[in-house]
Automatic annotation (TrEMBL):
Signal sequence coordinates: none
Keyword Iron-sulfur: yes
UniProt name for this protein: Formate dehydrogenase major subunit
Native source organism of the sequence: Desulfomicrobium norvegicum (strain DSM 1741 / NCIMB 8310) (Desulfovibrio baculatus (strain Norway 4))
Required co-factors: [4Fe-4S] cluster
Molybdopterin oxidoreductase domain mapped to chain residues: 2-372
Stored InterPro entries: Asp_de-COase-like_dom_sf (IPR009010), Formate-DH-alph_fdnG (IPR006443), MoPterin_dinucl-bd_dom (IPR006657), Mopterin_OxRdtase (IPR006656), Mopterin_OxRdtase_prok_CS (IPR006655)
Domain of life of the native organism: Bacteria
Predominant cellular place of this UniProt entry's protein: other
Entry's Gene Ontology cellular component terms: cell envelope
């Protein structure tokens, strides 16, 4: 997330798409309301008329899964009407870059597509370089192979009539929406996008967000107050867990997971350290060897760097180890054991029947949670004979959040320290203690019995986890920040030298080294716990008058990186360091003091000296992004299960690179008259995730007692269903019952001349409790995913609905 929740109040137009923010993130709505009170327009685009819609100034319906059509239409609207923030686009994006002459796009497919392998060779997507190895630019934006012209050509097909026909969004409402949002393309205006799982849980999830990123760059809305592309996280610490790498493809600090084809540390650094020849490109990832070396030393403090790297677990080259793949392999008997830690995959995973069957193929499973859930109890669930399940299940009770101390990092990247309230009940323990005790016990067994490969276990730096018995969150927070392993001399710009003693906390990631003399568990968190203390525990609301204009609160907790509150804030000023929006500046250049004021500057150097998007190799925002698995520009594809056999933009119906499993093909349906209705899943305020926390609380189950299905009055009449009646939803993957809620808030969509009905179900329920609460929505969702992330497509799939 680029900005933060308080910053929403600085927006002139807030687009909420792929989210029901007023219901699912009610605290953030305080700041949306502040923006409205100051004159901002709030737009909600969604298949349902929700609580967010009721609070918005403008509501636009769209069929679930048609977002790229709608966003592509806005890109065309911007370009056709010359609404870009020109100076920003020219200097701060790759719009002028010249793309390889080998690049092509025809009928829904980009150049380099391998049909047999269902993947792209991306070589032809590259940029042309000059004699110095810098991307060629056409600052007139007239070259037919410059990104700007390629973008214009690509989205020329996305006219409002076609967009309306496939999305079901009325054309007049689309155009009103486009006009309102694109008005933020003026330098002194800013628009922001708030999205959530409604965008990510699609086979084109990454490209949904890419499409909006393109819009934000064209309008000059990145790096500014009231701008950005902002993900509303579903839990208080989702941002923190992502930062600390609870994903298969990254290690802490957003560095790539080591792979088998990178056999040595030198191989890893060579493959993962970008090189830029542009003197104005900061190319911050050039420092990755320092961050990676410091991470290795945080894991294996006593080992030299090559040895530490050899101990790191490695993925096989090309291996996808995302959620859907793991459970597919588990179903095929390729796992012996499984830890389900604070999760409930038997209810939360797509195609839950497949997931539950996969769990039955294990030798053992450990379920760490606060309450009994569907995962720990799968062996006695609906239709399961416990005698036929070989899996031995262990349940470890863990403490709830208020019973343990530590940090969370919220949606705005603010790391905030929380203190323990009551002690854990019964035999439950904080997760840190469970992990710590487990590590100590495994080490003890390795010392006693030896093992096939004991070095990574016995060499693990557990000294910084606790006192030998009890986990210490402060020790771990200090390790994540990092400290010096050897006495180190630091040289200041004025030539003065300071000796930093071994054991001293590192004050900035600029001080991390690649020679093994520093350790840091996560480079982006360096400066969070320094010799001055725990920065995330600060509670000081003091601001300068300029900071108060936008609400930065730099002394309240701590924000990564280096307490910067708005990422890419260098793009908030022009080439001379003057804010685009003087009334709400994020940065300003002090000519007399030769320094930046207000926020912590992204990248350093004088105005115009550095490109603003410092994490990108070429230093600019990527309108054209040649690194993704499904194309350098977002292209419209239908969900893998859809109610149409064609769409108006190409003959390529679905994403050609989507993650899918051949053996599941018989369970997927497209335009099947047996399953004619689009279904989408969502959350309600009263329940949390799969309901493991909330379904056990009587006052919440009283408010939302059981599974329901929302449907339009038109569909209810068609199917003879009355409000409050029990209905069955079904498709080839399974079925579940729900209570019908017949409502005006859902309407049939006119899609290419045919009526398409959408129904919606919440995903919080499961068979364990309450006994008459229903079962998981994911019994119906397909095990197909985005080709970049593997996230399942649970927001658009096909079902039948009938009276029970």
């Amino acid at each position: 997330m680029t900005n933060h929740w308080i910053d929403f109040k600085n927006s002139d137009c807030i687009l909420i798409m792929g989210s029901n923010a007023a219901e699912n993130h009610p605290i953030c709505w305080k700041w949306v309301t502040r923006a409205q009170e100051a004159g901002a327009t709030v737009i909600h685009v969604d298949p349902r008329y929700t609580r967010t819609s009721s609070k918005a100034d403008m509501y636009v319906p769209l069929r679930s899964g048609s977002d790229i059509g709608v966003l592509g239409g806005m890109i065309k609207y911007i370009l056709d009407n010359d609404l870009t923030q020109k100076e920003y686009v020219l200097h701060y994006t790759n719009a002028p870059f010249i793309v390889s002459k080998d690049f092509d796009f025809k009928d829904g497919l980009f150049s380099g597509f391998d049909e047999a392998g269902r993947k792209y060779d991306k070589k032809s997507w590259s940029f042309e370089m000059d004699e110095n190895g810098v991307p060629k630019r056409d600052m007139t934006l007239k070259d037919p192979r410059c990104v700007y012209q390629i973008l214009k050509k690509h989205y020329d097909r996305y006219d409002s009539k076609k967009v309306s026909s496939i999305s079901g969004s009325p054309e007049d409402q689309l155009l009103a929406f486009y006009k309102a949002y694109t008005a933020t393309g003026k330098p002194d205006k800013a628009g922001t996008i708030l999205y959530a799982m409604g965008w990510t849980q699609h086979t084109v999830g990454v490209q949904n967000i890419r499409a909006m990123s393109i819009i934000q760059l064209l309008l000059g809305n990145m790096g500014v107050a009231g701008g950005g592309v902002n993900a509303l996280r579903g839990e208080s610490n989702v941002q923190g867990s992502t930062d600390q790498a609870l994903l298969f493809h990254i290690i802490p600090g957003y560095m790539a997971t080591p792979r088998s084809n990178w056999a040595t540390l030198e191989d890893y650094n060579k493959a993962n350290t970008p090189v830029s020849k542009d003197p104005k490109s900061v190319n911050w990832w050039q420092h990755k060897p320092k961050y990676f070396a410091s991470l290795l030393k945080s894991f294996y403090k006593e080992a030299d760097l090559p040895t530490a790297y050899s101990w790191m677990p490695k993925l096989d080259a090309g291996q996808n180890a995302s959620w859907l793949v793991l459970f597919d392999k588990m179903l095929k008997g390729q796992f012996k054991g499984f830890f389900s830690w604070g999760m409930n995959p038997a209810a939360s995973g797509a195609d839950s029947n497949k997931t539950r069957e996969a769990l039955s193929k294990l030798d053992w499973m450990v379920n760490v949670n606060m309450f009994e859930n569907e995962t720990g109890s799968f062996w006695k669930g609906p239709g399961v004979d416990p005698k036929k399940v070989k899996t031995e299940v262990f349940f470890l009770p863990c403490a709830v959040s208020v019973e343990k101390e530590g940090s969370i990092t919220n949606s705005g990247r603010w790391m905030q320290w929380r203190y323990a309230g009551p002690s854990p009940m019964g035999e439950s323990k904080p997760d840190g203690d469970i992990i710590y005790e487990l590590a100590l016990k495994i080490r003890e067994l390795y010392k006693k019995d030896k093992g096939a490969f004991p070095d990574p276990i016995l060499g693990l730096n557990v000294d910084d986890w606790g006192d030998g018995h009890v986990f210490d969150p402060h020790k771990v927070a200090k390790l994540i920040n990092g400290y010096y392993l050897k006495d180190t001399v630091l040289k200041a710009p004025d030539g003065t030298e300071t000796v930093m003693k071994a054991g001293t906390q590192v004050a900035s990631f600029a001080h991390l080294k690649d020679d093994g003399s520093t350790c840091s568990g996560n480079w982006i968190y360096t400066a969070s716990y320094t010799e001055k203390g725990n920065m995330s525990a600060r509670r000081d609301k003091t601001q300068t008058p300029e900071q108060a204009k936008v609400g930065l609160y730099p002394n309240w907790t701590w924000s990564w990186p280096v307490n910067r509150r708005v990422i890419y804030n260098r793009a908030s000023v022009d080439m001379n360091g003057k804010p685009w929006a003087p009334q709400k500046p994020v940065l300003a250049w002090d000519e007399a003091g030769k320094k930046w004021l207000i926020d912590v500057v992204d990248g350093g150097g004088a105005p115009g000296a550095k490109h603003p998007f410092i994490m990108r190799k070429h230093g600019v925002g990527q309108i054209y992004g040649p690194g993704l698995n499904d194309g350098p520009l977002p292209e419209y594809y239908e969900p893998l299960e859809c109610p149409v056999t064609e769409h108006p933009f190409s003959t390529q119906l679905n994403s050609p690179t989507a993650l899918m499993f051949a053996e599941d093909a018989h369970k997927r349906t497209t335009c099947d008259p047996r399953f004619p209705f689009v279904c989408t899943s969502y959350r309600v305020t009263e329940h949390w995730q799969t309901g493991v926390l909330t379904r056990w609380l009587p006052w919440l189950t009283e408010a939302q007692p059981q599974m329901f299905c929302e449907m339009s009055e038109e569909l209810a009449e068609l199917k003879g269903i009355k409000n409050g009646e029990k209905v069955i939803l079904e498709n080839p993957r399974g079925q579940l019952w729900a209570i019908a809620i017949v409502t005006k808030r859902l309407k049939p969509f006119d899609v290419m001349g045919n009526p398409v009905h959408v129904v919606g179900i919440p995903w919080h329920y499961g068979w364990v409790w309450p006994k008459d609460g229903g079962d998981a929505a994911n019994l119906l969702t397909p095990a197909v995913g985005d080709p970049n992330t593997g996230i399942p497509e649970t927001k658009a799939f096909m079902v039948n609905v009938k009276k029970a």
